[in-house]
Amino acid sequence: MSGGWQGSSRKSRLPKNWKALVIKVKARDGHRCTRLSDEGNRCMNVGTDVDHVKPGDDHSLSNLTLLCSDCHARKSSREGNEARWKHRQRRPDERHPGLS
């Protein structure tokens, strides 16, 4: 099986009460994905993944939301791409070898 937690330390950083937090977030969010479209409409899919609104290890209820697997995958992909782009932007400009 690929993807998921493979190669990630994320699961080990979750609090001991993670399962209880998941239950609370699912109940609070009505078991539906909370992602809003550009038009402001809420996703109609069943929420399956509890996600951190702001990346990091803030596991407070105010920083947790329920997403469907599709919305969670898109959000995670966007965050990963943004992190990679940010890293690329920190590289110093290299002179073209032909301009030396």
Describe this protein's structure:
It is elongated and about 65 Å long. The N and C termini lie far apart (49 Å). Strands 1-2 form a two-stranded antiparallel ribbon. It has two helices and two strands, in the order αββα. Helices cover 32% and strands 8% of the residues. The chain has 100 residues and is α+β, with helices and mostly antiparallel strands.
**Outline:** elongated
Structural class: alpha+beta
**Helix-strand sequence:** HEEH
User: Beta-strand level of the residues, as a percent range?
Assistant: 5-15%
Please tally the helical runs, counting DSSP H or I stretches of 4 or more residues: 2
Distance from first to last alpha carbon = 49 Å
Low-confidence stretches: none
How would a textbook summarize the main sheet?
A: 2 strands, antiparallel
What percent of the residues sit in helical stretches (DSSP H or I)? 25-40%
Spatial order of the strands in the main sheet? 1-2
Q: How many beta strands in the DSSP annotation?
A: 2
Can I get a quick summary?
With 100 residues, the protein is of the alpha+beta class. The protein has helices at residues 18-28, 69-89, and strands spanning 49-52, 64-67.
